[in-house]
Amino acid sequence: MELPEASRALLGAWAEGKPEALRAELENFVSVRMEEKKARHTPAAYKAILNRLDRFSGGSDEVKLDMLSLAASRGWITVYPPKTQDKPSGQGEEGRWDVE
Fold first, then answer.
1. Burial of 20 (C-beta count, 10 Å sphere; 0-12/13-18/19+)
2. pLDDT score at 83
3. What is the value of pTM for the model shown?
4. Which residue, among 64, 58, 2, 59, has the nearest Cα to 34 in the 3D structure?
5. Is the pLDDT of residue 24 over 90?
6. Strand partners, 97
7. Residues in CB range of 22: below 8 A, 6 or more apart
8. pLDDT over threshold 70, residue 40
9. DSSP state of 76
10. How much is the pLDDT for 84?
11. What is the DSSP string of 33-96?
């Protein structure tokens, strides 16, 4: 299967002006995602992923790079927020609940 041209154009426009490492990791993520049968490759699907990257990264290209790298290495079809943003407020640094 080949990436639809509309999806390729959307990804290219988003990646324009981004650091080379981020563009390469996006390409890697898309290639890993192409191997998943359940992944959709429509522009809407990629737009949702790019929106998640922007929203969960706080605008940091380094965080986006980490999110894409983790998703690709685990074979995910989407990206997830970094764990530090996922932690409930009552949880301590070691991942244990603070108990007094």
1. exposed
2. 84
3. 0.80
4. 2
5. yes
6. 91
7. 15, 61, 64, 65, 68
8. yes
9. -
10. 66
11. HHT-TT---SHHHHHHHHHHHHHHHTT-HHHHHHHHHHHHHHT-SS----HHHHS-TTB-TTS-
Angstrom distance (rounded) from CA 74 to CA 89: 27
Retrieve residue 8's tokens: 């390729």
Residue 73 one-letter amino acid: S
Alpha-carbon gap, residue 60 to 85, rounded angstroms: 13
The pLDDT, as a whole number, for residue 81 is 93
Positive or negative torsion for Cα 6, 42, 76, 54: positive
In the chain, the N- to C-terminal Cα span, in Å, equals 56
Would you say how long the chain is, in residues?
Answer: 100
What single DSSP character describes residue 75? Answer: T
User: Is pLDDT above 80 for 90?
Assistant: no
Contact 42, 4 (CB under 8 A): yes
Cβ atoms 52, 43 nearer than 8 A: no
Query: Could you tell me the two tokens for 87?
Result: 């932690």
